[in-house]
Amino acid sequence: MPFKLTDELLEQVQTLISESKDAELRTLMKEFHYADIAEIANELDEEEATYIIKLLDSEKTSDAITELDEDVREAILNNLSPKEIADELEELDTDDAADIVGELPKELVKEVISEIEDRDHAKDIVDLLRYDEDTAGGLMAKELVKVNENWTVTRCVKEMRTQAEEVTRVHSIYVIDDEEKLKGRLSLKDLLTVSTETHIREVYIPKVDYVNVNEKPEEVAKIMQKYDLEAIPVVDEIGRLVGRITIDDIVDVIRDEAERDYQLAAGISQDVEADDTIWELTRARLPWLILGLFGGAAAAVIMGGFEEMFKKYTVLFLFTPLIAAMAGNVGVQSSAIIVQGLANDDIKGSIGNRLIKEMLLALLNGIILSALLLLFTWIWKGDFMTAMAISISLIAVIVVAGFIGTFIPLFLDKRGIDPAIATGPFITTSNDIFGILIYFWIAKLILGL
Amino acid sequence: MPFKLTDELLEQVQTLISESKDAELRTLMKEFHYADIAEIANELDEEEATYIIKLLDSEKTSDAITELDEDVREAILNNLSPKEIADELEELDTDDAADIVGELPKELVKEVISEIEDRDHAKDIVDLLRYDEDTAGGLMAKELVKVNENWTVTRCVKEMRTQAEEVTRVHSIYVIDDEEKLKGRLSLKDLLTVSTETHIREVYIPKVDYVNVNEKPEEVAKIMQKYDLEAIPVVDEIGRLVGRITIDDIVDVIRDEAERDYQLAAGISQDVEADDTIWELTRARLPWLILGLFGGAAAAVIMGGFEEMFKKYTVLFLFTPLIAAMAGNVGVQSSAIIVQGLANDDIKGSIGNRLIKEMLLALLNGIILSALLLLFTWIWKGDFMTAMAISISLIAVIVVAGFIGTFIPLFLDKRGIDPAIATGPFITTSNDIFGILIYFWIAKLILGL
């Protein structure tokens, strides 16, 4: 039952296209969900994909277009006339339509918009273009059901019926005043049990969750998750109801944000996918590697400063990769917990307390790990003092690494900078350098060099 | 308007509890959403939190209990009698109720279940306990609206009305046959426009997405995201409709999975939060650090084998942290892209092609980075041959690191093991060792030692 894109199916589609068997193609595609059509189109070449989109009904292809990979969508839209694009937009909800218009070349936008027959729809799309993509306004759709508090139940039911036709999923009925300000929401049950001449202002529920147009998408996601909402109204600076955000858009926000944080932690700086070109992947990865290279060069220079120790205590140098690795690991662990805690609003209390806790934790881990290392080095090299020096240095390195890993994301967050950039290579590299510096310095002190 | 948990509010609540001002507490809490009450209770001590839960209506506290931190919930439930727990369960949807029962001590379960007055509700909860937490069955609720294909529209509307009372959000009306097998779904609009004596089998839509009870939560999440579903029916092995999963539960699945992958990549092995105790955090972090320690010790032993090179080519040793860091960074980047690609079903084509692509990418990055390093080392130390040896080794190390980072997660995935465990410390540590080994081996070869 579930759709599966097989090589056979893909071949069948390609053959039907090359032989222009339109009727058969239509019959075949009729069975598929728009998300499946998008999956097929992603695998076709530009001409084939365009052929499919032109062949099928806008009602189906419009949604498929929103689900396409961005580069495929761009290529297909390039092959469509402004009128054809307008036909697709006509079928879409305003938020999806605005997203597509936002991707069009600037010189094309005006023409496409003017071809949209439903002028209210066109107006709504243009309104949405004004909002920054990274705000609640950039996420919301104009489709919603709203009633005026001064209407009677009779009028309300009549108006709702017209509005609901435009809205795929109603979720909630919002109540506004004459100035379009959001006043509350309406329970369908209440509406059906009161007299038809009652005014809405007597029956509506004044308690309603909402967000401001300028709210960040992540904040909207948090609110909708916390209160288990499937839709939330959006108001402008003076409280007027301007749109509505539904949970499916929020699911995308949550997933995108998680992917971004994950990529930052792994040292990948842009939104890339496994199937991108080598060049795109290099651009996303090389900057962090160069950072690592500079860090490594700095570590080499630092170690160069301790070269005179080589002859007597070669063993110290054998453990530099271990020291660097431990400093990096502890730093990444600490910063990841802080970044995740900040994202979930789990970080309470002062920065001072947080740092003390993290350093106690690092101390505990450091003592256990150092005891193991002491045993290993002592047995291996038979020199207790050197083993002791290495182990004590390791404790210091781990405590400092924990401090840095905790402090940097907290500091960035206080400054309004996304703390997630402090995970991954950034922390690893700085901890490598500090770790090696502390290691040689303490070892030198203990061994009395 | 949005709720904010301030220190003043917390103090006010604590004072009201200590002075037993029940009426005032009730009035204060009446304004709050259950998720806010949970947020308050999480910050109170055990007695205070229990006091609040006992004081307020089960209708509100039941949902608050599901939102509590796990340890707080456990403590509160410990202080409630079986009857009191049953009262809370009575108010909850079956999926949430089953989750709570699953957390209760075994000896208590029978007693609590027997105290539930609504026997159908109790039966549904017990049914749900049978399913593995990590399946669609473990996620689903029993609350849904279903009608028999042999009913007339009149009977259908009557039955739907009764069923809908139990269901918070209806989403869809499912159609079953006499054997409870899922046949399709019903459009409310169709239902209202046909004659009341029509049979459901003549009007229902036979196309409906569903999942099997044994499906993994991540698969359910993928299907619901792909098809923009807000609810999906769950069927058993022989196609009988047994439950329904709603989007709010899927949002939790997506978030939990993202957090887990992120923590694995950061070297944190259990689901911990910033506010957990030092002991819990140590248990989650120490295993990976010990792995890193072993890796570091192995690197030390390897380097020890090249000790005779020390006198002549000390400079080689200065660059071991750089080599280890680059091998680790490249490995983590490669594995993170593969893990994310696998999670999103983006990885198409053979493993062989994937490995060739990754190695070409690593080669490109390696050449750029090595050129930079060559320049640096040559200028710093003035010895072209050594600089050359280090740089060529770096290219080899980066290519191998890319290969390992790509191969291991693909291999684990083929074997049915979660590839995410191969990110973070695991890749870093193995790449450190391989990197250092390759580095000294190639340098030795080039310098003719």
TrEMBL record, chains A, B:
Coiled coil: none annotated. SMART domains: CBS, MgtE_N. It holds the Pfam family MgtE. The chain crosses the membrane at residues 286-306, 318-339, 360-380, 386-412, 424-442. The keyword Magnesium applies. InterPro entries: CBS_dom, CBS_dom_sf, Mg_transptr_MgtE_intracell_dom, MgtE_N_sf, MgtE_transporter, SLC41_membr_dom, SLC41_membr_dom_sf. Keywords: CBS domain, Cell membrane, Magnesium, Membrane, Metal-binding, Transmembrane, Transmembrane helix, Transport. Signal peptide: none annotated. The keyword Transmembrane applies. Residues 140-202, 204-260 form the CBS domain. It is found in: Cell membrane; Membrane. Its main location: membrane. It is a multi-pass membrane protein. Acts as a magnesium transporter. Belongs to the SLC41A transporter family. NCBIfam families: mgtE. Homodimer. This is Magnesium transporter MgtE. It comes from Croceivirga thetidis. The gene is mgtE.
